[in-house]
Amino acid sequence: MINQFRSLHPINLLLLVAYTVLMRLVIFFNLPSELNFEILESYTRFFINIPNNALSPEANVFFAAVIVLVQALIFNRIINNHGLLNKPSYLPALMYISGTSLFLQFLVLSPALVCNFLMIVVIDKFLKLSKTSNAMSIMFDSGMLIAIGTLIYFPFMMLLLMLWLSLLLYRPFNWREWISGIIGFLTIFMFVAVFYYWNDNLDRFFDIWQPLTNKFPSNLQINYNDYLVLIPVGLIMVMAVIQLRDNFFRSFISTRKAFQMLFFMFVISIVSFYTKRGVTVAHFVLCVPSGAILLAYYFSNAKKRWFYETLFVILVACIQYFLFV
């Protein structure tokens, strides 16, 4: 199957649709009687109200699958356009769909899943930093995208750190570029503040930022049996890192910096969970775009067909097994 997706053959589009359905069969067989549709933060519902029962469970799961497929195709196009792999292929889309199927909570609509649209666009903009003479507009747009994502899901705000980390990686210091991203972010929230002010609720606007004062948890209650599915994922990522190390100095400088940027994005996506109380596993779908590139990198460079094909079958089998049990 991996060898099939190493090319851009049009039939792979149909195979991706079939693969998306296959990886979501478990949720269709065990459809909950009710699924909440909380797609916005409470401070956003103050001026945009979407009822929790706006979608039936069937519609919820269906639209989640459609969103994942569309995101995978956009993501695939961006990675191919920036040449992060050996050659253009559908491997990024395949790995993205696999990553968004790891847990049951990934299979339904969630704010984090919707934010992945913005995450993918932000990745595209950061990858363009090395190809432009003036990054102010890119950083301003990225700041606005992060602000919009924060209206949907508060932990998305932590990607503000990526504005400066990406500039450190790609650009010489220019104070205008460093503040343009923050200005873009504040532009969105200025309009939000004005709306709160017009409705005599400015105090509630200041409450938005209270999660930033949360202490990072010193102990986490984790049921490790629920995360055994990550073992094959972790194995593939370790082998991808080994390949990256071996090819590091033979790669283009832009490619090296791209993977460093994606590593920081992956880490920030994980640790940002502390900014939201009662966070669920669905939060970690934010890690999928940056992680999927690393998985795709391994399968794009792997040499022994019997080994990488078997490894992918094991990955899919583990995902299906742990979803059904």
Description:
The chain is mainly alpha-helical. It has 15 helices and no strands. The two termini are 25 Å apart.
Question: Secondary-structure map with pairings?
Answer:
Blueprint: H1 2-5, H2 11-22, H3 25-29, H4 42-45, H5 57-81, H6 91-99, H7 111-127, H8 136-152, H9 160-170, H10 175-198, H11 202-207, H12 230-247, H13 253-271, H14 288-301, H15 305-324
Helix pairs in contact: 5-6, 5-7, 6-14, 7-8, 8-10, 9-10, 9-13, 12-14, 13-14
Relevant terms:
single chain, 325 residues
Span from first to last CA? Answer: 25 Å
Q: Largest sheet, if any? A: none
Structural class: mainly alpha
Helix fraction bin:
55-70%
Low-confidence runs of at least 5 consecutive residues: none
Q: What overall geometry do the principal axes of the alpha carbons give?
A: globular
Number of helices: 15
Strand content: under 5%
Rg computed from alpha carbons, rounded to a whole number of angstroms: 20 Å
Task: Write down how many β-strands occur, each being a DSSP E stretch of 2 or more residues.
Answer: 0
Mean pLDDT comes to: 86
**Helix and strand string, N-terminal first?**
HHHHHHHHHHHHHHH
Outline of this structure?
With 325 residues, this protein is mainly alpha-helical. Helix content is 63%, strand content 0%.
